[in-house]
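cron nightly-structures :: item 1 of 1
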Amino acid sequence: MSRRPLVALGLGLVVGLAACGQTEQTAKAPLKGSDSPAWQGAANPFVAPGWKPGDPAAWQEQMRRRVAGQNEYSRIN
């Protein structure tokens, strides 16, 4: 028997077993603030103008404006 099939078989086994050696990928700690409502967001200079943190009505109005401006059909001519 020649060496080529044995080398190919050996490489195939090494590659096949390497795929089984992956470690578990889970989050170590819960994400900070993931359980708070969306309108409770942080006040920083990157928020949309007119949005007030902690105000659900202002949040919903900002979402309505954002969705209205993202109509792809109105952009196609």
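cron nightly-structures :: done
The chain has a mean pLDDT of 75.
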